[in-house]
Every structure is written in C-alpha cells, then in structure tokens.
From TrEMBL, chains A, B:
<dbReference type="GO" id="GO:0003677">
    <property type="term" value="F:DNA binding"/>
</dbReference>
<dbReference type="GO" id="GO:0003700">
    <property type="term" value="F:DNA-binding transcription factor activity"/>
</dbReference>
<dbReference type="InterPro" id="IPR047057">
    <property type="entry name" value="MerR_fam"/>
</dbReference>
<feature type="domain" description="HTH merR-type">
    <location>
        <begin position="2"/>
        <end position="71"/>
    </location>
</feature>
<keyword id="KW-0238">DNA-binding</keyword>
<protein>
    <submittedName>
        <fullName>DNA-binding transcriptional MerR regulator</fullName>
    </submittedName>
</protein>
<dbReference type="InterPro" id="IPR000551">
    <property type="entry name" value="MerR-type_HTH_dom"/>
</dbReference>
<dbReference type="Pfam" id="PF13411">
    <property type="entry name" value="MerR_1"/>
</dbReference>
<dbReference type="InterPro" id="IPR009061">
    <property type="entry name" value="DNA-bd_dom_put_sf"/>
</dbReference>
DNA sequence: GGTTGACCTGGAGTGCACTCCAGCTCCTAC
DNA sequence: GTAGGAGCTGGAGTGCACTCCAGGTCAACC
C-alpha cells in the first residue's frame, strides 16, 4: 500500500508542507517517487511519521529527533543508544506531566477562589 | 517587602530581560521605582509573576495572558470572564496531560521493544 | 488540445517568546 | 574622585518549527 503526500499528511496529522520540510532537514528519508516524480509513501514511511509525531507531541526538539533518525539509519548497532534516548525522553515527559499536574492544582485552587467570590456576591444580592 | 529586578527574576524563575519584556507588552503593570529609577517589585507583583509563570508553563499563549491581565485590571466586574478563561484553560491542560500520557504509553511500548531486542541479542551471545 | 487539480522546487516569510546589545545613569566602596 | 556593578532604554537579533509563494510539471478528463 502506498500513499500520496496528501494521504500521508492526512494519516500522520502533519501538513503537506511539513512532510516536505521534514524530508528536507533529514528527519525522514526521501520516499519513493511514482513515474511522474511524485512522492509515494509506504506503510513503513507512514509508521515512522506517526512515531515522529508522538515524539513531537511530547516536546522532543527536531534536532534530537534527527539524531534519533540518524542512529536508526545506522542500523541495529545503534539500538542501545536509541533506547537510551527514549529512556531519557520518557523521563522528561514524566517530569513534564508532573509539572502540568502541579500547575493544574494551582488552577483548581484559583478557580475555587473565583467560585467563592461568586458565591459571596450572590449571597450579597439575596441578603 | 520589595525586590530588585534581579531578586524578582530569581523568585519568579523568569529572566531579568523577560521581566522587562513582560512589562513592555503589558503583561505586568510597571512596578514602582526607587529614587534612582530602578524597579522595585512588591509581594503582590511577585505573586502575579508567579501565577503568570504557571500559566506559561501550562502553555497559555502570551496573547491570552495579556487578555487575562487586562480583565484583571478592570476589576471585580470581570471576575466571571476570568473564571471562564481559567475554566477553559484547565480543560486544555487536562487534555494536554491526557495526550502526553497516551504518547508516554507508546514510548513505554517502544522501550519494551528495544529491551526485547537486547534480550534476544544477549541470548544469542550466551547460546 | 485546453483546462483543471495535485504535486513539484527553491527560497522567502511568519509567529512566538524571548534574548542580546550599545550606550547610558546611578549608587557604593575604596 | 573613580572604579565597579546593577540597572536603565530602545531597538535589533535569535531559534524554533513551520508555512507560504511563484513558477513550473504532469496526468486526466472534457
């Protein structure tokens, strides 16, 4: 199964421009081309793109994703290094979640405060 | 209690440049000045700064923080609108956490995969 | 054979949130 | 009285990750 760039964009959630951009900066290998010179993405290409979007979503900088891509390119010998990268990234994602969670607590507190103000206000009116 | 810009930076976790930048774009009110024309931040200034950093950390764009700051400036009458903003922001933070969590699951899976490869490799050697 | 629509290229432009800089003023300590 | 350090201003520069554009090609349909 192969996909046009438009289909690849739709399935990966990236824009067409971003797909070409990722190729340009060496984050994805240039996909095959059809007889007319158009990109045709394979299922493998697609799953790599999907994985990349996960890394992006979790805030991995492009620079690091490129490093990962280069290691991947060098084959099984770099598996340890790649695992290490994912390991460290996992830690940073966990930290990020914890950080968001703690800010969320502050937000809850603040919202509760507004609710209290509202409550007081209503009491003031009905009193 | 008042604080120099350096102290305010340290306590808020923002840089000195960022403090001046926030003031310039109207995110924080210009603090008082001492006899020499230097900024002196009050405890209130500080707690606003700290709250702002929470909003930033949770990904609220500056544009929206500025809107919030302007509402705040208009006093109690805008409390409802502000609460609404925090409400919506809270929802987006929760979504973000869920998104990170689901990407984390993918990451776990991938790491487990690498571990399996390693395991196979070691078996191959010792066999 | 002409029009349409998807795709191509290289390169320029955008938005965001800072960050840095030159050249200045002030206060303090020696 | 002068050297040093913190702070001041307006404005320019940076890094990131796209996003857009002009001008062109190609295949298909009418």
């Amino acid at each position: 199964m192969t996909y046009s760039i438009a289909q690849a964009a739709e399935r990966s959630g990236l824009s067409i421009d971003t797909l070409r951009y990722y190729e340009r900066i060496g984050l994805v290998d240039p996909p095959a081309r059809d007889s007319g010179g158009r990109r045709t993405y394979s299922d493998d290409d697609l799953s790599w793109l999907v994985f990349l979007t996960r890394l992006r979503t979790t805030g991995m900088p492009i620079r690091m994703m490129r490093e990962y891509a280069q290691l991947r390119h060098r084959g099984a010998a770099t598996a340890g290094r790649r695992k290490q990268m994912l390991f460290e990234h996992r830690a940073s994602v966990r930290e990020r979640i914890a950080e968001l969670q703690s800010c969320l607590d502050v937000l809850e507190y603040k919202i509760a405060h507004y609710e209290q103000i509202e409550h007081t206000f209503v009491e003031g009116i009905t009193a």
